[in-house]
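The step that takes the researchers longest sounds almost clerical: writing a folded protein down as plain text. The outcome of that step, for a single protein, is printed below.
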Amino acid sequence: PIYYGEDNWNWKGGISFEVYPKGWNKSLKEVIRKRDNFECQICGKKEIDENRNLNIHHIDYDKKNCNIDNLITLCNSCHIKTNGNRNYWAQYFKNNINIKSCQ
């Protein structure tokens, strides 16, 4: 069976329904994609090969934190992967990803 809401193993108290802040927009996402060379920062897939825009992920999982150092480009499959075991992924990004400052 499929479990929804509080019955789902990945339930986080309804935080997915929180509204994104005003600064979360196409411009910001494009800046992050450009900084990350339009490629997934986990597996290296390129946006051009995916034939779609890559996702922008909040490293600390706080959608209100739109600081550029908290955002990273991921392909869809890697972005889905990071939804589980969040403590692992937050630590992974902290230890393994060198966020380049935007010029």
About this structure: The mean pLDDT is 85. The longest strand covers residues 55-58. The two ends are 49 Å apart (CA to CA). Strands lie at 55-58, 71-74.
